[in-house]
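DM from R.C. (forwarded with permission)

"hey, sorry to bug you on a friday — could you get me a structure for this? deadline for the figure draft is monday and I only need the backbone to look sensible"
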Amino acid sequence: MDGASYSAVAGGNIAPAVFVTMSESSGEPVVTVAGSNALVWGISPKSTRRMALSGWDDGYAAISGENIACFGPGDDEAYLTLGGTVTSGQPLKSDGSGFGVTALTDKDRVGAIALEAGSSGDFIKVKPVRYDVSI
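My reply, with the result:
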């Protein structure tokens, strides 16, 4: 999997492999964890910002004010944490924690397509996309 292609400043603490949204602050892009059915800008990287050494890794992909590289449309695939059970090929939207859940209605905002099946808490490969079917 190639590296993430979109970068911005974290507007808060961001967990690995979650949907993020983008806003602007002082003309610069700022990303935060996406809320329920938010218009997704991308997906945070699967890795944490620090090495997994005893007491050093805080579990975040980025903390507020740090640069973060995210996966988005144009990237072949990324990993996403699931908030429910999904099957391969299903469109995914964000739940209230930025986790991927199945998009079920014509009002859902899709941020990825599942490339494999999984259950809540799993990291699965997804194809990042960005479309709002409510328009």
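R.C.: lifesaver. The mean pLDDT is 90.
me: no worries. The first strand starts at residue 6 and ends at 10.
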